[in-house]
Amino acid sequence: GSRPAPRRCTATRCPAGSTPLKFQALSLGLGDQWPKVKKAYAAANEVLGDIVKVTPSSKVVGDLAQFMVQNNLDAKALVEQAEHLSFPTSVVEFMQGYLGQPPFGFPEPLRSRIVKDKEVIQGRPGATLPEANLARLESELQERWGKTGAPIKQRDVVSAALYPKVFDDYRAHVALYGELTSRINSNAFFHEMEEDDEIEVETEPGKTVVLKFKAVGEIQPSGKREVFFEANGIPRIVEVIDRNAASTAGVSGIRQKADPTERGSVGAPMAGEVVEVCVEPGARVEAGQALVVMSAMKMETTVSTPVPGVVQHVAVVKGDRLEGGDLLVSVES
């Protein structure tokens, strides 16, 4: 017969297969707070209405749990402050009805405070989708990506139709780094290799390259480092941009922190990368208007201004990697 779920899973409502969530927490710098993340998962689950958890909805709960830990929020504070918080996109879209309608309805007043004046979907989301013109989409993909990397195939068209942003991000990655990165094992791809670590990469059927990491050079004024490695025993050197360096291109990596006593001093709600800056200095903004979009391990968050006013300072640009609390934008109300 089937075995019951471990007590730790039922107590936290954290799925038994929680490895992706733990890996995401490690990548967000929350590895040493994993017990808090699991506890927050139970709290987030209850706040959302104890929803049925499959891959998309479990991600919503996991994203909210990590958001709560990063911002030191319990369930009560989350609901009370919801109107002024910049929630992960997955949580906002869940509340908008993008995943469908929960059997017991959406939790109020939390939903109204998160959604505000955004559009909501009634009923099954797919019922209102327009018909997909796959032939036209294939033509658009050929024009946009056909000259970079592998040619567009039918599965690419389907992937782009289902997950347009994910597909564009993937093709942009391939255009920059090539296709072989997909053949590197996950541990080597996501984690730093240690000196003399070896991996095997199959570059084509029947052809395997053994890569051995040797060392990393000092940071250069250009923000690049030399990486020393061996390919099938032959020494190689490549230059790479160090995005995590404290100083790149002569610009100090010490970032100003947002002032928690000033509501117009808007900080990063989590560690991550800036994927879009939506405002410029001098722009007039309304409360709730998007300022910056951040992403971390597939958890995207649109950071909005809690106050109306004029943008005085934009402290980030696209591609910046930030820690939680780093200043994004200053708004004078």
Automatic annotation (TrEMBL):
Keywords: Biotin, Pyruvate. It holds the Pfam family Biotin_lipoyl. This is Pyruvate carboxylase. One of its GO terms (biological process) is gluconeogenesis. The lineage of its organism: Eukaryota, Viridiplantae, Chlorophyta, core chlorophytes, Chlorodendrophyceae. PANTHER family: PYRUVATE CARBOXYLASE (PTHR43778), PYRUVATE CARBOXYLASE, MITOCHONDRIAL (PTHR43778:SF2). GO terms for cellular component: cytoplasm. It comes from Tetraselmis sp. GSL018. Gene3D superfamilies: 2.40.50.100, Conserved carboxylase domain (1.10.472.90), Homeodomain-like (1.10.10.60), pyruvate carboxylase f1077a mutant domain (3.10.600.10).
